[in-house]
Design brief:
There is one protein chain. By secondary structure, this protein is α/β, with parallel strands linked by helices. It has 9 helices and 11 strands. Strands 1-2-4-3-5-10-8-9 form an 8-stranded mixed beta sheet, with helices on both faces. Helix 1 runs antiparallel to helix 9. The longest helix has 20 residues. The site of zinc ion has 3 residues, from loops.
């Protein structure tokens, strides 16, 4: 298959021609380029710009109905409020790959990108078909459907029984009791190894976070080559004042097998090289930790390629289209690079050369 052609089509199908238009016209404002956009103080939040649960399910079912390729949609778990957690699967390639999005309810762009990707892959276009002869793409879009609802739009899942935060004890929860759990701290293939079980085996004989357990079980069932977990982060800035729009990272927990870590680094560098061609994308290395219950570390420890993707977020509906496109470019690039095997030619050490993330940018600070 013609690699460049696939890339072009994969991106172009969803993106139209607006990709390169972002930065050139941006003006300096508060020493960051581009200088926004931001949600201003008096502006209403419009998180309904993102699909709510009903819209997500309806769109997934529509793709399943109309797909020109092998497509399955199943529930792999249920949230505390009774919402299905979906696994969509498209293609017939021997190599399974897997995406997880929106473990944190207020981090929506990966889900929007996942829908665009599934729509494209199922479209029956020749290029999509070529990809799906090589890889089968699995997606858990919106792992945390309760926290994602517009009236909450919160990081945590929803659990009135969740205690207040105490990470030493294993409670990666909201600072307030009764809100919910941080889904991305509970990816334990063996629950008895978890911090919480180690401290409170009688109270928590099983994983109390159904959304995380659903992902753990689905990954074990699918047994993919890699897992890519898509999030949003705040706004960060490079040393020379450019806005960072994405950060990427690989598993670094103690005991991650070298081959899984190398594959993860190859995926990161491949995605970095791809998006760095676009003027609007400023990519960097995410300063992630070693906690084994985080998806990135957990799936690395289990021998999978494992990548964390962070897209600029925290700006509600602002830049929705552009940020979702950036997530889609990253997701598309790793599928493409796996299908044509170019990702395996990347030198894993080159991932270390990706610039580190830089400083958090608070637009309220007066310029120095
Ligand atoms: Zn997150």
């Amino acid at each position: 298959m013609d690699r460049r052609n696939v890339l072009k089509t994969f991106g172009g199908a969803a993106f139209g021609g607006a990709l390169l238009s972002g930065v050139a016209g941006a003006k300096r404002e508060n020493h960051i380029v581009p200088g926004g956009p931001w949600v201003t103080e008096n502006e209403p939040r419009k998180v309904e710009a993102f699909r709510d649960y009903e819209e997500l399910v309806s769109d997934l079912e529509k793709v399943a109905r109309t797909s020109a390729r092998e497509f399955s949609l199943e529930s792999v778990g249920t949230s505390n409020r009774g919402r299905d957690i979906h696994l969509a699967r498209v293609g017939s390639g021997d190599t399974d790959v897997m995406f997880v999005t929106q473990q944190h309810g207020n981090e929506p762009h990966g889900t929007e990108a996942a829908l665009s990707m599934l729509q494209y892959l199922s479209s029956g276009s020749g290029e999509a078909d070529d990809l799906l002869d090589e890889v089968t793409v699995n997606v858990i879009p919106r792992a945390n459907p309760d926290g994602s609802e517009p009236d909450l739009f919160q990081r945590y899942n929803v659990d009135p029984d969740a205690p207040a935060r105490d990470t030493e004890e294993g409670f990666f929860t909201s600072f307030d009791a009764g809100v919910g759990w941080d889904v991305n701290r509970y990816h334990w293939p063996d629950w008895t190894e978890s911090t919480l079980y180690q401290n409170r085996p009688d109270e928590y004989p099983e994983n109390p976070v159904p959304e995380a357990q659903a992902v753990v079980d689905a990954v074990a069932e699918v047994d993919p080559l890699w897992v890519v977990d898509v999030h949003n982060q705040g706004t960060y800035v490079t040393d020379d004042g450019r806005m960072i729009t994405t950060s990427l990272y690989w598993p670094i927990a103690e005991g991650v097998p070298a081959d899984a870590q190398d594959l993860s680094k190859q995926l990161v560098r491949h995605a970095y090289d791809h998006v760095s061609r676009f003027g609007y994308a400023e990519a960097s290395q995410y300063p992630g930790g070693t906690y084994p219950g985080i998806a990135r570390n957990s799936y690395g420890l289990q021998g999978y390629g494992s990548v964390l993707v962070e897209i600029r977020g925290g700006v509600d509906q602002k830049s929705n289209g552009k940020l979702s496109r950036l997530a889609l470019e990253i997701m598309a690039s790793v599928v493409d690079g796996t299908a044509d095997e170019s990702v395996f030619e990347v030198d894993p050490d080159d991932a270390e050369e990706i610039p580190e993330r830089g400083d958090y940018y608070d637009r309220e600070l007066p310029p120095e």
